[in-house]
Specification:
It is built from 15 helices and ten strands. By secondary structure, the protein is an alpha+beta fold.
């Protein structure tokens, strides 16, 4: 049996090289498509990672702990008790993460000339820079310090709308956790520019301790933000947090896909549109394989008729033709994956930059180059689909052999 299989493989290899030019044209089409699919899939993975980083690193974080229902209906009373000690516990329980606690409330901010509704965020200055890039986007002045009281950092658009600058005073008026009035006069010590309208226009930042005093929060807050060093471990860290807080019904664990559902949907929509284009390429390659195999079968019709007359079953010849197609597809897969991986490795070292990308990404305090991400999934998904499509395309020429009549076939010139 082993000798028979070895003989079939040898015959299949010789048969595909009966016409070297035709074989190389077919293999070249598969190599090109596989190489392109590997590169584009890895480039997409890198682009999606950059999209995720650019969105989550600015403010959201990878994981958050919140009170139940706070994400859908933010309410100052839906708070986490002892939030700073809870954040310290998370730091102790999890390795490879950065943690910071926040509180959030809505207030009316007034200058000498104008008033606007804003979202006031209480942060821990000593750890906020570990989970957010906003502290590095200060355009004027400085960021908050641990000892700050009655100071605030605001967005550039909010500063322009209120017609205020560094050193000016800002009056805030809101509702405390207990329903009482929360009001105070703050001094602007920093103006940040994130180039994100929702942040620059609507947000202001004070220290968490001061927020708790002004809004009568005692030791409570609203979210514990977690940044995971290794993005692939987010699900693992979220599962660990679920185990740690399983007995605490007052906390829920939210990963980035829940926190930024729109981002996840945008990535999924882009994947669908990209694979629609890839499908056209795969179909063209499949037709190329079918054409090659069909020509090969038609050219050898007389040979097939002779061997069938000698008692060889059609099933054996079908397997032989499919084996030839498999060799073609395997050759295209190996060469395409190798060249695609080599291309990705080269570009992953140097990065890929587009005109104007450095300036745009610099505004968000993000890398100015796009780096493809080489993963097994991105490496073999496209080529595997090309391989299966090629084998399916070879079925039609192979199955024609079942209809072959030996006497008629031997008459073919």
């Amino acid at each position: 049996m082993l000798e028979l299989r070895s003989l079939s493989l040898t015959l299949a290899w010789r048969n595909i090289w009966r016409h070297p030019r035709r074989t190389w044209l077919t293999v070249s089409a598969m190599v090109f498509s596989n190489c392109l699919l590997v590169f584009m899939n890895c480039l997409q993975a890198g682009m999606y990672q950059l999209m995720i980083d650019s969105t989550l690193d600015i403010f959201t974080g990878h994981i958050q702990l919140q009170a139940p229902g706070y994400l859908d209906e933010p309410d100052i009373r839906k708070s986490i008790p002892r939030i700073q000690s809870q954040a310290a516990r998370v730091r102790e329980e999890l390795e490879g993460v950065a943690v910071s606690a926040r509180a959030s409330g809505f207030a009316l901010a007034s200058s000498d000339e104008r008033s606007y509704g804003i979202q006031l965020i209480g942060v821990q200055p000593e750890s906020e820079a570990l989970v957010s890039t906003l502290p590095g986007l200060i355009n004027q002045g400085r960021y908050l310090q641990v000892s700050d009281q009655k100071t605030v950092v605001i967005g550039s658009v909010l500063a322009r709308n209120l017609k205020v600058g560094l050193g000016d005073e800002l009056v805030i008026l809101g509702s405390g956790r207990d329903g009482s009035m929360a009001a105070d006069v703050l001094t602007i010590v920093g103006i940040l520019e994130s180039n994100m309208p929702d942040i620059d226009r609507n947000m202001a930042f004070i220290t968490l301790d001061y927020f708790q005093d002004v809004f009568f929060m005692q030791d409570s807050g609203h979210s514990i933000v977690i940044h995971v060093e290794d993005f692939s471990l987010i699900a693992t860290k979220a599962a660990q947090l679920n185990r740690y807080f399983a007995q605490n019904d007052d906390l829920v664990v939210l990963d980035w896909e829940t926190l930024e559902e729109g981002l996840r949907q945008a990535i999924e929509a882009d994947l669908v549109s990209a694979w629609f284009i890839y499908a056209v390429l795969i179909v063209l390659v499949a037709f190329s394989v079918m054409n090659t195999q069909l020509m090969s079968v038609l050219e050898r019709t007389r040979e097939f008729g002779i061997v069938m007359a000698l008692g060889v079953r059609a099933t054996h010849m079908v397997r032989q033709v499919l084996l030839e197609a498999g060799l073609l597809a395997t050759l295209g897969l190996l060469l395409g994956v190798s060249l695609g991986a080599l291309l990705v490795l080269i570009i992953s070292q140097t990065g890929l930059a587009f005109p104007g990308m450095e300036e745009v990404m610099g505004r968000f305090n993000l890398p100015d180059r796009l780096y493809p991400e080489l993963t097994l999934f991105a490496l073999f998904l496209g080529p595997a689909i090309v391989f299966m499509s090629s084998m399916l395309a070879a079925l039609y020429p192979a199955l024609r052999l079942y209809l072959l009549q030996p006497i008629e076939a031997m008459k073919v010139a």
